[in-house]
Design brief:
The complex is a heterodimer of chains A (101) and B (178).
Chain A lengths: L3 H21 L3 H25 L5 H31 L13
Chain B lengths: L1 H22 L3 H21 L3 H25 L22 H28 L13 H9 L3 H22 L6
Helix pairs in contact in B: 1-2, 2-3
The chains are: A mainly alpha (101), B mainly alpha (178).
Chain lengths: 101, 178
């Protein structure tokens, strides 16, 4: 039951659902949710390989840095979303057609 | 036995909440289901013996990122929630239409097929250790690794966080001339 394969399958489902959220949704915040799911899938893979294949803790370090980068990405992304909403009064991704302002 | 129970419950919580993030109509509910996904991920980290990563996951993601997401949803709710109910799935337009959903399902199916093909060969050839049920604390080792082997990445991530916070504050500040 608990093996490397089961963790890889869970991580694969997380990645695919995150990809589908990023493609299917038109809301910028929903796209950021998809990015978070994909980053989590990668971090789970690192920890699973660190436990089942290697004998050191480098995978844990990678997961910690993934969490840090995801937090920074969420802060900047949501600042951009709020700024975009101040200008366009919507967060529909098709309205994002210019880089000015 | 407890480990099996924790693994199964965490896996079910993670997968169910992940699918709910994709299919639910309300963006606020999506964020709350993402919270469930992250709780399940922390449980999975705990079953892998990664105690520090699990606690960091709970503190940073659930205490920081999801709260930020909820604030962003509430600050930018606007007319996307009420007026644009138009597409075939009965969703608001900002939740995508049938073209984007079918494209997402197509990409997902292709990715799953190729990934199953890859995973089967990887799992056959990757040597996996036989692991016991011992879970030594990883905090001391992680601290030593962070300030010895990975100190450059540690410092760079601190500069990255500083830059991200200052940048976010500058981007989101209100401007008078607009």
């Amino acid at each position: 039951m608990m093996s490397l394969a089961s963790y890889l399958i869970i991580s694969m489902v997380l990645f695919v659902v995150g990809l589908m959220v990023m493609i299917a949704r038109k809301n910028i915040v929903a796209i950021l949710l998809g990015i978070e799911l994909i980053l989590n899938a990668a971090a789970l893979n690192f920890v699973a390989y660190s436990r089942y294949v290697t004998s050191n803790l480098d995978g844990h370090i990678f997961s910690l840095f993934i969490i840090v980068v995801a937090a920074a990405e969420a802060a900047v992304g949501l600042a951009i979303v709020i700024r975009f909403f101040q200008i366009k009064e919507t967060i529909h991704v098709d309205e994002a057609t210019q880089l000015r302002n | 036995m407890f480990l099996q129970f924790l693994f199964i419950s965490s896996a079910i919580l993670t997968l169910a909440c992940t699918v709910a993030v994709l299919v639910t109509k309300n963006l606020m509910h999506s964020c709350v289901f993402l919270l469930g996904t992250l709780v399940g991920m922390a449980g999975l980290y705990a079953t892998l013996g990664a105690d520090f990563v699990a606690v960091t996951q709970i503190m940073v993601y659930m205490g920081g990122v999801v709260i930020l997401m909820l604030f962003a949803v509430m600050l930018t709710g606007g007319k996307d929630f009420v007026s644009r109910a138009q597409n075939l799935l009965g969703l608001p337009a900002s939740m995508g239409n049938k073209w984007t959903y079918s494209m997402g399902i197509f990409v997902g199916v292709v990715f799953i097929l190729t990934n199953v093909k890859l995973l089967s060969s990887i799992i056959k050839t990757t040597p996996t250790k036989t692991i016991g049920n011992d879970f030594p604390s990883t905090v001391t080792q992680l601290g030593h690794l962070l300030v010895k082997d990975h100190v450059l990445a540690f410092e760079i991530s601190s500069v990255l966080l500083l830059g991200a916070l200052v940048g976010a504050a500058i981007i989101a500040r209100p401007r008078k001339q607009n």
